[in-house]
Design brief:
By secondary structure, the protein is of the alpha+beta class. The protein is built from five helices and ten strands. Helix content is about 40%, strand content about 25%. The chain is rod-shaped, with a radius of gyration of 44 Å.
Length: about 210
């Protein structure tokens, strides 16, 4: 009697119909009485079944499509996160904050042409100013971005007879109706944007220049 391992070695040829006539007869005879080899044959036929192969290909194709969709979704999510982070960082970089008074950085003097020059030794984004009669209130403000850029020279804010101009970052121009005799440094957020006066709103103002009479 032919052993099972010999029959099982011949089963692939048997399935593909390339086994010799004698081998096929021996296999058929063996399969009639051997349930083990019958099961092996059924498993081999199941694997080699074209319909089964097509099902496997369909499953693989579906899996690949799903994987491709997930990959695209991941890329979109990453790009969206990068974009949102960029917008947030940019917004944080340009949001102004008040620069506190620093006697080592801020100085003032009366020039020979009667112009009051306010100097700032550092970097800032802009300066706001409001006049109230003969008094001028100024406040410097900065941003994260402005702190990164170091100026190559001292930045100057000049107060003339009828106008005050920032020659530094913001090119602020303030029209004056009176000669300025006092200059105070304040938190720039306390300055009123309508220019109608600030005396009632200013707190903790620091006198940085006063005209000698």
């Amino acid at each position: 009697m032919v052993k099972c391992d010999v029959i099982q070695d011949l089963l692939p040829l048997y399935i593909d119909n390339v086994a010799s006539e004698g081998s096929r007869e021996a296999i058929d005879e063996h399969l009639k009485s051997c349930p083990v080899c019958q099961e092996v044959l059924q498993n081999m036929q199941s694997v080699s079944d074209p319909a089964r192969i097509n099902v496997d290909k369909a499953e693989i194709g579906a899996f690949r499509k799903m994987k491709s969709k997930l990959r695209r979704k991941s890329v979109v999510m990453i790009l969206a996160a990068v974009f949102a982070t960029t917008i947030f960082c940019y917004g944080a970089a340009v949001v102004p904050f008040s620069i506190p008074y620093d006697a080592e950085k801020i100085s003032a003097k009366l020039a020979y042409d009667e112009v009051i020059d306010i100097y700032y030794d550092g970097s800032y984004a802009g300066v706001d100013a409001r006049a109230d009669g003969d008094t001028l209130y100024i406040g410097y403000y900065g941003t994260v971005w402005s702190q990164i850029i170091t100026p190559s020279e001292r930045l100057q804010f000049s107060i003339g007879s009828n106008i005050a101009v920032d020659y530094g970052r913001s090119s602020t121009i303030i029209q004056l109706s009176e000669q300025i005799d006092k200059v105070y440094y304040v938190n720039y957020r306390q300055l009123r944007s309508d220019g109608s006066g600030v005396a009632d709103e200013i707190e903790d103002a620091i006198l940085i220049w006063e005209r000698v009479k």
